[in-house]
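hey m, so remember when u said the C-alpha coordinates were messed up on ur end? i reran from scratch. heres the input so u can diff it against urs
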Amino acid sequence: MISLLLKRFIHGLIVLWAVATLTFTLLRLAPGGPFDSERKLPPEILANLEAKYHLNEPLIEQYLRYLAGIARGDLGPSYKYLDRGVTEIIADTLPTSALLGGLAIVFALGISFPIGLFAAYYRDSLIDRFCLFVATLGISLPNFILGALLIWAVALQLGWLQAGRWDDWSSAILPTITLGAAPAAYLAALLRSTLVETFGEDFVRTARAKGLKESAVIAKHALANSLIPVLTVMGPLIATLLTGSFVVEYVFAIPGMGRFFITAVTDRDYPLIMGVTLVYTAILVGANFLVDVLYGYVDPRIRSE
Protein backbone atom coordinates (compact mmCIF):
# COMPACT_ATOMS: atom_id res chain seq x y z
CA MET A 1 0.00 0.00 0.00
CA ILE A 2 2.81 2.44 0.86
CA SER A 3 4.54 1.64 -2.42
CA LEU A 4 1.30 2.29 -4.31
CA LEU A 5 0.76 5.64 -2.60
CA LEU A 6 4.36 6.67 -3.28
CA LYS A 7 3.86 5.92 -6.96
CA ARG A 8 0.64 7.95 -6.94
CA PHE A 9 2.45 10.86 -5.29
CA ILE A 10 5.21 10.87 -7.91
CA HIS A 11 2.61 10.54 -10.64
CA GLY A 12 0.79 13.56 -9.18
CA LEU A 13 3.94 15.68 -9.33
CA ILE A 14 4.42 14.72 -12.97
CA VAL A 15 0.80 15.66 -13.71
CA LEU A 16 1.30 19.08 -12.08
CA TRP A 17 4.42 19.71 -14.15
CA ALA A 18 2.66 18.60 -17.35
CA VAL A 19 -0.36 20.84 -16.71
CA ALA A 20 1.85 23.82 -15.87
CA THR A 21 3.87 23.30 -19.06
CA LEU A 22 0.83 22.79 -21.27
CA THR A 23 -1.01 25.81 -19.87
CA PHE A 24 2.06 28.02 -20.30
CA THR A 25 2.55 26.83 -23.89
CA LEU A 26 -1.08 27.20 -24.97
CA LEU A 27 -1.37 30.71 -23.57
CA ARG A 28 1.80 31.80 -25.34
CA LEU A 29 0.58 30.27 -28.63
CA ALA A 30 -2.84 31.95 -28.39
CA PRO A 31 -3.27 34.92 -30.74
CA GLY A 32 -3.00 38.37 -29.22
CA GLY A 33 -1.30 39.45 -26.04
CA PRO A 34 -2.20 40.36 -22.47
CA PHE A 35 -2.07 44.08 -23.20
CA ASP A 36 -3.97 44.08 -26.49
CA SER A 37 -7.15 46.13 -26.43
CA GLU A 38 -9.38 48.16 -28.72
CA ARG A 39 -7.30 51.19 -27.86
CA LYS A 40 -3.72 50.39 -28.74
CA LEU A 41 -1.03 51.43 -26.29
CA PRO A 42 1.89 53.59 -27.45
CA PRO A 43 4.89 51.42 -28.41
CA GLU A 44 7.08 52.77 -25.60
CA ILE A 45 4.45 52.02 -22.93
CA LEU A 46 3.88 48.54 -24.34
CA ALA A 47 7.64 47.91 -24.32
CA ASN A 48 7.87 49.01 -20.68
CA LEU A 49 5.03 46.71 -19.67
CA GLU A 50 6.58 43.75 -21.46
CA ALA A 51 9.91 44.47 -19.79
CA LYS A 52 8.27 44.78 -16.36
CA TYR A 53 6.61 41.37 -16.66
CA HIS A 54 9.56 39.76 -18.52
CA LEU A 55 7.47 39.18 -21.64
CA ASN A 56 10.32 40.45 -23.80
CA GLU A 57 12.52 37.55 -22.76
CA PRO A 58 12.83 34.31 -24.79
CA LEU A 59 10.06 31.80 -24.09
CA ILE A 60 12.43 29.31 -22.49
CA GLU A 61 13.55 31.93 -19.96
CA GLN A 62 9.93 32.85 -19.21
CA TYR A 63 9.11 29.17 -18.76
CA LEU A 64 12.02 28.52 -16.39
CA ARG A 65 11.17 31.67 -14.44
CA TYR A 66 7.59 30.44 -14.12
CA LEU A 67 8.65 26.99 -12.86
CA ALA A 68 11.06 28.58 -10.38
CA GLY A 69 8.23 30.74 -9.06
CA ILE A 70 5.98 27.70 -8.62
CA ALA A 71 8.73 25.96 -6.66
CA ARG A 72 8.89 29.01 -4.32
CA GLY A 73 5.10 29.21 -4.03
CA ASP A 74 5.03 32.43 -6.06
CA LEU A 75 2.58 32.32 -9.00
CA GLY A 76 3.58 35.74 -10.25
CA PRO A 77 1.86 39.13 -10.50
CA SER A 78 -1.57 39.69 -11.94
CA TYR A 79 -1.73 41.75 -15.14
CA LYS A 80 -5.26 42.95 -14.31
CA TYR A 81 -5.04 43.59 -10.56
CA LEU A 82 -1.84 45.57 -10.44
CA ASP A 83 -1.59 45.78 -6.65
CA ARG A 84 -2.16 42.05 -6.04
CA GLY A 85 -0.26 38.89 -6.86
CA VAL A 86 -1.85 35.69 -8.12
CA THR A 87 -0.95 33.84 -4.92
CA GLU A 88 -2.68 36.53 -2.85
CA ILE A 89 -5.80 36.46 -5.04
CA ILE A 90 -6.07 32.67 -4.79
CA ALA A 91 -5.43 32.74 -1.04
CA ASP A 92 -8.28 35.25 -0.63
CA THR A 93 -10.81 33.54 -2.91
CA LEU A 94 -10.08 29.81 -2.62
CA PRO A 95 -11.52 29.49 0.92
CA THR A 96 -14.87 30.81 -0.32
CA SER A 97 -14.92 28.39 -3.25
CA ALA A 98 -13.75 25.55 -0.99
CA LEU A 99 -16.47 26.28 1.57
CA LEU A 100 -19.13 26.28 -1.12
CA GLY A 101 -17.69 23.07 -2.54
CA GLY A 102 -17.53 21.43 0.88
CA LEU A 103 -21.17 22.25 1.55
CA ALA A 104 -22.09 20.88 -1.88
CA ILE A 105 -20.19 17.63 -1.13
CA VAL A 106 -22.08 17.18 2.17
CA PHE A 107 -25.35 17.91 0.40
CA ALA A 108 -24.56 15.51 -2.48
CA LEU A 109 -23.57 12.64 -0.18
CA GLY A 110 -26.46 13.24 2.19
CA ILE A 111 -28.98 13.10 -0.65
CA SER A 112 -27.43 10.48 -2.94
CA PHE A 113 -26.95 7.64 -0.45
CA PRO A 114 -30.57 7.46 0.80
CA ILE A 115 -31.96 7.82 -2.74
CA GLY A 116 -29.62 5.22 -4.20
CA LEU A 117 -30.21 2.81 -1.33
CA PHE A 118 -34.00 3.10 -1.39
CA ALA A 119 -34.10 2.78 -5.19
CA ALA A 120 -31.97 -0.37 -5.13
CA TYR A 121 -33.74 -1.97 -2.16
CA TYR A 122 -37.21 -1.39 -3.66
CA ARG A 123 -36.13 -2.22 -7.19
CA ASP A 124 -38.81 -1.91 -9.92
CA SER A 125 -41.28 -0.38 -7.46
CA LEU A 126 -42.87 3.06 -7.51
CA ILE A 127 -40.19 4.22 -5.08
CA ASP A 128 -37.48 3.05 -7.48
CA ARG A 129 -39.11 4.77 -10.45
CA PHE A 130 -39.56 8.00 -8.51
CA CYS A 131 -35.92 7.97 -7.33
CA LEU A 132 -34.70 7.30 -10.88
CA PHE A 133 -36.87 10.15 -12.16
CA VAL A 134 -35.38 12.54 -9.60
CA ALA A 135 -31.84 11.36 -10.41
CA THR A 136 -32.38 11.70 -14.16
CA LEU A 137 -33.83 15.18 -13.71
CA GLY A 138 -30.89 16.24 -11.55
CA ILE A 139 -28.34 14.95 -14.07
CA SER A 140 -30.10 16.51 -17.06
CA LEU A 141 -30.77 19.96 -15.62
CA PRO A 142 -27.79 22.33 -16.05
CA ASN A 143 -26.78 24.10 -12.86
CA PHE A 144 -27.16 27.58 -14.33
CA ILE A 145 -30.80 26.82 -15.19
CA LEU A 146 -31.41 25.27 -11.76
CA GLY A 147 -29.80 28.30 -10.12
CA ALA A 148 -31.97 30.70 -12.10
CA LEU A 149 -35.11 28.71 -11.22
CA LEU A 150 -34.23 28.67 -7.52
CA ILE A 151 -33.58 32.42 -7.54
CA TRP A 152 -36.89 33.08 -9.29
CA ALA A 153 -38.98 30.73 -7.13
CA VAL A 154 -37.37 30.87 -3.69
CA ALA A 155 -35.85 34.35 -3.62
CA LEU A 156 -38.04 36.48 -5.88
CA GLN A 157 -41.47 34.85 -5.67
CA LEU A 158 -41.48 33.46 -2.11
CA GLY A 159 -38.93 35.84 -0.62
CA TRP A 160 -37.52 33.17 1.67
CA LEU A 161 -33.83 33.64 0.84
CA GLN A 162 -31.68 36.27 -0.81
CA ALA A 163 -30.75 35.86 -4.45
CA GLY A 164 -27.08 36.67 -4.17
CA ARG A 165 -24.16 37.78 -2.00
CA TRP A 166 -22.18 35.73 0.50
CA ASP A 167 -22.58 37.29 3.93
CA ASP A 168 -24.38 34.76 6.19
CA TRP A 169 -25.41 31.10 6.35
CA SER A 170 -28.68 31.64 4.50
CA SER A 171 -26.86 32.98 1.45
CA ALA A 172 -25.14 29.58 1.03
CA ILE A 173 -28.34 27.51 0.78
CA LEU A 174 -29.31 28.15 -2.84
CA PRO A 175 -25.75 27.96 -4.24
CA THR A 176 -25.14 24.72 -2.33
CA ILE A 177 -28.27 23.11 -3.75
CA THR A 178 -27.44 24.37 -7.23
CA LEU A 179 -23.87 23.08 -7.13
CA GLY A 180 -24.61 19.79 -5.37
CA ALA A 181 -27.76 18.70 -7.22
CA ALA A 182 -26.12 17.16 -10.29
CA PRO A 183 -23.39 15.29 -8.32
CA ALA A 184 -26.05 14.02 -5.91
CA ALA A 185 -28.18 12.72 -8.78
CA TYR A 186 -25.20 11.08 -10.50
CA LEU A 187 -23.98 9.40 -7.31
CA ALA A 188 -27.50 8.20 -6.50
CA ALA A 189 -27.87 6.59 -9.94
CA LEU A 190 -24.41 5.01 -9.70
CA LEU A 191 -25.01 3.69 -6.18
CA ARG A 192 -28.39 2.30 -7.16
CA SER A 193 -26.86 0.44 -10.10
CA THR A 194 -24.03 -1.10 -8.06
CA LEU A 195 -26.33 -2.02 -5.15
CA VAL A 196 -28.80 -3.78 -7.44
CA GLU A 197 -25.95 -5.94 -8.70
CA THR A 198 -24.58 -6.50 -5.19
CA PHE A 199 -27.96 -7.55 -3.77
CA GLY A 200 -27.92 -10.44 -6.23
CA GLU A 201 -24.51 -11.75 -5.16
CA ASP A 202 -24.12 -15.05 -3.31
CA PHE A 203 -22.51 -13.51 -0.22
CA VAL A 204 -25.57 -11.30 0.35
CA ARG A 205 -27.93 -14.25 0.04
CA THR A 206 -25.68 -16.23 2.40
CA ALA A 207 -25.73 -13.42 4.96
CA ARG A 208 -29.52 -13.35 4.86
CA ALA A 209 -29.69 -17.13 5.13
CA LYS A 210 -27.60 -16.97 8.32
CA GLY A 211 -30.32 -14.86 9.89
CA LEU A 212 -28.48 -11.53 10.03
CA LYS A 213 -30.56 -8.43 10.48
CA GLU A 214 -31.43 -6.72 7.23
CA SER A 215 -29.72 -3.52 8.39
CA ALA A 216 -26.48 -5.46 8.97
CA VAL A 217 -26.76 -7.16 5.58
CA ILE A 218 -27.16 -3.80 3.86
CA ALA A 219 -24.50 -1.88 5.80
CA LYS A 220 -21.77 -4.50 6.29
CA HIS A 221 -22.17 -6.55 3.13
CA ALA A 222 -24.09 -4.86 0.32
CA LEU A 223 -23.18 -1.21 0.87
CA ALA A 224 -19.54 -1.84 1.82
CA ASN A 225 -18.97 -3.85 -1.37
CA SER A 226 -20.65 -1.22 -3.55
CA LEU A 227 -18.45 1.72 -2.59
CA ILE A 228 -15.54 1.08 -4.97
CA PRO A 229 -17.31 2.49 -8.08
CA VAL A 230 -18.53 5.44 -6.02
CA LEU A 231 -15.04 6.17 -4.69
CA THR A 232 -13.65 6.01 -8.21
CA VAL A 233 -15.68 9.03 -9.30
CA MET A 234 -15.36 10.85 -5.97
CA GLY A 235 -11.82 12.06 -6.69
CA PRO A 236 -12.56 14.34 -9.66
CA LEU A 237 -16.00 15.11 -8.22
CA ILE A 238 -14.55 16.39 -4.93
CA ALA A 239 -11.94 18.46 -6.79
CA THR A 240 -14.62 20.01 -8.98
CA LEU A 241 -16.85 20.89 -6.05
CA LEU A 242 -14.06 22.15 -3.78
CA THR A 243 -12.85 24.61 -6.39
CA GLY A 244 -16.41 25.73 -6.84
CA SER A 245 -18.38 26.14 -10.01
CA PHE A 246 -17.51 29.16 -12.14
CA VAL A 247 -21.10 29.41 -13.36
CA VAL A 248 -22.67 29.05 -9.90
CA GLU A 249 -20.36 31.67 -8.41
CA TYR A 250 -21.20 34.03 -11.26
CA VAL A 251 -24.98 33.46 -11.02
CA PHE A 252 -25.07 34.05 -7.25
CA ALA A 253 -22.40 36.80 -7.19
CA ILE A 254 -20.15 34.78 -4.88
CA PRO A 255 -16.63 36.25 -4.46
CA GLY A 256 -14.87 32.96 -5.16
CA MET A 257 -12.01 31.87 -7.34
CA GLY A 258 -14.27 31.12 -10.30
CA ARG A 259 -15.24 34.73 -10.90
CA PHE A 260 -11.60 35.78 -11.00
CA PHE A 261 -10.85 33.00 -13.47
CA ILE A 262 -13.60 34.20 -15.82
CA THR A 263 -12.30 37.78 -15.76
CA ALA A 264 -8.74 36.50 -16.17
CA VAL A 265 -9.70 34.73 -19.40
CA THR A 266 -11.43 37.78 -20.84
CA ASP A 267 -8.55 40.06 -19.75
CA ARG A 268 -5.85 37.59 -20.86
CA ASP A 269 -4.33 37.67 -17.41
CA TYR A 270 -1.84 34.86 -18.06
CA PRO A 271 -0.46 34.41 -14.52
CA LEU A 272 -3.93 34.28 -12.98
CA ILE A 273 -5.18 31.78 -15.56
CA MET A 274 -2.15 29.55 -15.01
CA GLY A 275 -2.36 29.90 -11.23
CA VAL A 276 -6.03 28.94 -10.99
CA THR A 277 -5.51 26.04 -13.40
CA LEU A 278 -2.57 24.79 -11.37
CA VAL A 279 -4.50 25.03 -8.09
CA TYR A 280 -7.41 23.13 -9.61
CA THR A 281 -5.02 20.42 -10.81
CA ALA A 282 -3.36 20.20 -7.39
CA ILE A 283 -6.74 19.72 -5.71
CA LEU A 284 -7.69 17.09 -8.29
CA VAL A 285 -4.43 15.21 -7.69
CA GLY A 286 -4.91 15.46 -3.92
CA ALA A 287 -8.49 14.21 -4.12
CA ASN A 288 -7.46 11.23 -6.23
CA PHE A 289 -4.66 10.50 -3.76
CA LEU A 290 -7.20 10.54 -0.92
CA VAL A 291 -9.42 8.15 -2.88
CA ASP A 292 -6.48 5.76 -3.26
CA VAL A 293 -6.05 5.80 0.52
CA LEU A 294 -9.75 5.11 1.04
CA TYR A 295 -9.55 2.20 -1.39
CA GLY A 296 -7.31 0.42 1.11
CA TYR A 297 -9.91 0.72 3.85
CA VAL A 298 -12.85 -0.32 1.68
CA ASP A 299 -11.08 -3.22 -0.05
CA PRO A 300 -8.48 -5.03 2.16
CA ARG A 301 -7.04 -6.74 -0.94
CA ILE A 302 -5.52 -3.40 -2.00
CA ARG A 303 -3.69 -3.02 1.32
CA SER A 304 -2.04 -6.41 0.83
CA GLU A 305 -0.64 -5.56 -2.61
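this time it looks ok to me. Residues 109 and 184 are 6 Å apart (CA to CA). if urs says something different then somethings off w ur setup not the seq
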